[in-house]
Write a structure and sequence with these properties.
The structure is a homodimer of 246-residue chains. Chain A contains 11 helices and 3 strands, in the order ααααααααααβββα. In chain A, a hairpin with a 2-residue loop joins strand 2 and strand 3. The N terminus of chain A is likely disordered. Chains A, B: This is Ribonuclease 3.
Chain lengths: 246, 246
């Protein structure tokens, strides 16, 4: 009975919700939940392990930052064969910029899990990026480099990293598309609605109508991002027709 | 016949020697030798691939640097549970310091493989560290993170990284040991001889005699390192007897 109770306990109540929520965010089952819990413990609680070592997310942040840098380096290396060492360094620093990491952590609403003595609204923006890095550290300890890479590809690279935008060649696909529609006298409309579905984090969906047809659909964690994603899809669909300024 | 000739060609002549030498250095068989070759091409040759992209070691250096940083971060995280984020950052920067990387590349004599238009003696010290990082980048591309980790553990961490020395608690085990011998009136002698064996790189061995007995043996790429290693072994063997100043 104890065994069954332990199994039930490990997946139910506060722990169970946390386990499920983390699984939802990272996209695979944690082997052990311990390090994920630690990834949300703020130093204000002054928690210690049995040996007296500090038990909060700051060391995980160090580890996660290192893994993120390595994985983004490998991604850029493969993705941009014509970029030299200086270019790769510059592009990586854009992807892992403080502003970008804060945005990622904020979109995943990681702050909902924080354990702290300080009121949540007293934290600045950096808390989002710090928790995001700590989460990567926890994934590395739990499942190793490959799963870290999977998480970063799915949560950072695919939804957010656009080489052309990072290079500043394309500032906004939405404005490119609108400009083209206006020039060519096409009617366009962005139909946006909430579509969170089973996700932990609020999501929005958008249908991009051009001349009465749905040309592209997209889903993201903000209206602006969903519109941008749909515009990018439409842009590539129309690519040969649109006169870009590149 | 062509197939057989190709197989023979791929392992013999200049290529074959290079293949064997790399295998010796990295400690496992390369799957493909291509990226290892690139890891030694200097920009002075102005080599390009078929798409006109630069073909030299500089991009691999960027990749190797990122992998090295991540692997050392994970090592320190596990090895020093009591170290906070600031400590881990400081210790990592000591391990991956330019001086240390140059020493590592130099000990492996990586410059022997360089392809360049510039006379080898025109290069400064940094060439050794750059080639070392490029080699790590090549290992990552050829065999992935796990093999990179294996190489770094065997070639960087085990032979060179000593947490106590990095922390400055112990400057030199040799001087600790000599001091102890002199205080305790023990006779000591470091017997050093060349012992390269099957290694690509020149090695030295040392026997540390105390009062007519061999107390510790060690082998390394320089006399100084071999003596230090043997002293460290003897130090730990005598640990309870030696009055350290820590």
């Amino acid at each position: 009975m104890n065994v069954i109770r332990n199994i039930l306990n490990s997946r139910s109540g506060k722990n169970g919700n946390f386990f499920d929520a983390i699984q939802n965010i990272i996209g695979f089952k944690p082997k052990s939940i311990t390090n994920y819990k630690r990834a949300f413990v703020h130093r204000s609680l002054n928690k210690k392990d049995s040996l007296g070592n500090d038990l909060n997310y700051e060391r995980l942040e160090f580890l996660g930052d290192a893994m993120l840098s390595a994985i983004i380096a490998a991604y850029l290396f493969n993705e941009v064969p014509e970029g030299d060492e200086g270019y790769l360094t510059k592009m990586r620093s854009k992807v892992v910029s403080r502003k970008h990491l804060n945005e990622l952590g904020n979109d995943l609403n990681l702050i909902q899990f924080i354990e702290t003595n300080i009121p949540k609204d007293h934290f600045g923006q950096n808390i989002h990026g710090n928790l995001f890095e700590a989460l990567i550290g926890a994934i590395y300890l739990d499942r190793g480099y490959k799963f870290c890479e999977k998480f970063i590809y799915e949560r950072v690279i695919h939804p957010y990293v656009d080489i052309e935008q990072l290079e500043g060649k394309v500032i906004s696909y939405k404005s490119l598309l609108i400009e083209w529609c206006q020039k060519q006298k096409h009617k366009f409309n962005y139909e946006v609605y909430e579509d969170t579905g089973k996700n932990e984090v609020k999501h929005f969906a958008v249908k991009l109508w051009i001349d009465g047809k749905v040309i592209a659909k997209a889903r993201a964690t903000s209206k602006k991002k969903a519109e941008e994603k749909a515009s990018k899809r439409a842009y590539y669909a129309f690519q040969n027709k649109i006169n870009t300024k590149q």
